[in-house]
Amino acid sequence: MSKPLSTKIGAGLVVAVVVAGLTIYWLTRPVLSDRQQILDMFLAVEQAVEGKSASSVMRHISENYDDGTYTKRDLPRLAVTVFREREPFNVAPVVRSLEIESNRATAEVKVKFWIGRGPPQDAQDLTLHITLEKTRGTWQVTRARGWQQAQEAL
């Protein structure tokens, strides 16, 4: 009878230590600036495109996305069609400007985009104009212009 009670007490102590550790981590972790959050989001989108993961790309697209041609409802079908390409996608972005005002941001991103395993000999240069909005603490793309040129090349 003594052993099960000591096991319960030990398990309770382990749970208490884990909860305390997670609480300390959560309260002391550095809060990323809006700029860093946006740059991290751009990196996640780059990795999702290179991995041809439509769902991972869509995670960063706002429900309010509208670029004048497509809305968020149109993009998954478009992404799946494009990601069927057999060769790997390569994306080399450079953020040229990023302006943040409250919960809205605009960015100009220069991108070299090419398909295939080799060097970017046939890379397409794109200039993306991206509008973002912060909703519930998360930055998402609400509008993007300039990527349609890459779509036409496919």
Structure report:
This protein is α+β, with helices and mostly antiparallel strands. The protein is 41% helix and 29% strand. It has five helices and four strands, in the order H-H-H-H-E-E-E-E-H. It has helices at 2-28, 34-50, 54-58, 75-82, 148-153; strands at residues 89-101, 104-115, 124-135, 138-145. The chain has a four-stranded antiparallel β-sheet with strand order 1-2-3-4. Strand 1 (89-101) and strand 2 form a beta hairpin. The chain is elongated, with a radius of gyration of 22 Å. 15% of the residues are buried. The mean pLDDT is 86.
Average pLDDT number: 86
Give the SSE order as H and E letters.
HHHHEEEEH
- The counted number of beta strands is 4
Radius of gyration: 22 Å
Q: How many helices? A: 5
How would you characterize the largest beta sheet? 4 strands, antiparallel
Q: Structural class from helices and strands? A: alpha+beta
Q: N- to C-terminal separation?
A: 71 Å
- Shape, per Cα inertia axes: elongated
Residue runs with pLDDT of under 50 for 5 or more positions = none
- Beta-strand content bin: 25-35%
What percent of residues adopt helix (DSSP H or I)? 40-55%
Order of strands across the main sheet: 1-2-3-4
